[in-house]
Fold:
Amino acid sequence: MKRPYEIDPLVSEKQFVATQAIDTAPTPADGTRRHYSLAGLYPSCNQG
Structure:
């Protein structure tokens, strides 16, 4: 029996895990994956 606050998941665990493997960056022609890091931080507009 479901509790009032329980809802059905929108996707299955299998679908969720598979989605994590999706990469938006295209793989270069030589097949080598490249990783990039954020080099700096942008100042916040809300800092007094």
